[in-house]
Design a protein that fits this description.
The protein is α/β, with parallel strands linked by helices and 198 residues long. Helix content is 52%, strand content 15%. The chain is built from nine helices and seven strands, in the order E-H-E-H-H-E-E-H-H-E-E-H-H-H-E-H. Strand 3 and strand 4 form a beta hairpin. The two termini are 13 Å apart.
């Protein structure tokens, strides 16, 4: 029996650290962020739809400028809704196709790594939910340092998602990534061992 793990967390809480570690251990990871990048490649239907809605300003030639688009949508809930109305159905289709293909391989665990796992209702497609959390100040500082955001931009990105408290209420497993990477890995290994997935 294959277990599908829904992996999520707040932005910059360290979900990628956990995802990368599980991938390194040999488990297939279906990455929603990667899919989101694939579906907006030049010449795709989604890229054309975004150009129609948001105009040429969000593109550098044929290539989508994600930072420019981010500045528009994370400053306005209306614009964010417009973006999600185009992106999310296309992401969902691709995620479900990929999960189906991965299930055909004999593997104990498939990871669905999705920042908006709960917001977009993917909990009905997974068996367990793992939420990666970190201290709020650590989260904000990571985001400013990692993406070069101002404090205001960092807050906009954080508040565009559900709060960590709300996500935790759906969690089967909570991984605290406020400490070292090694401490985070130990929590993941403990869960794998307890779940007999290794």
């Amino acid at each position: 029996m294959t277990v599908i793990l829904g992996l999520t967390g707040g932005i910059a809480t360290g979900k990628s650290t956990v995802s990368s570690y599980l991938k390194k251990l040999g488990y297939p990871v279906v990455d929603a962020d990667q899919i989101a990048r694939e579906i907006v490649q030049p010449g795709t239907i989604v890229a054309d739809q975004l150009r129609t809605i948001f105009g040429d300003a969000i593109f550098d030639g044929a290539k989508l400028n994600r930072n420019r688009l981010g500045k528009i949508v994370f400053g306005s809930s209306v614009q964010l809704q417009k973006l999600n109305a185009v992106m999310q159905p296309a992401i969902r289709t691709k995620i479900l196709q990929t999960l189906k293909a991965e299930k055909k391989e004999s593997t104990k665990l498939i990871v669905l790594d999705a920042p908006l796992l709960l917001e977009q209702g993917y909990q009905k497609f997974v068996d367990q939910i793992m939420v990666v959390v970190s201290d709020a100040n650590v989260q904000r500082e990571r985001l400013i340092r990692r993406d070069g955001f101002s404090k205001k931009e960092a807050e906009q990105r954080i508040t565009a998602q559900w709060s960590l408290e709300k996500k935790i209420s759906f969690a089967d497993i909570v991984i605290d990534n406020s400490g070292s990477i090694e401490e985070t890995r130990q929590q993941v290994v403990k869960w794998l061992d307890n779940s007999k997935l290794r």
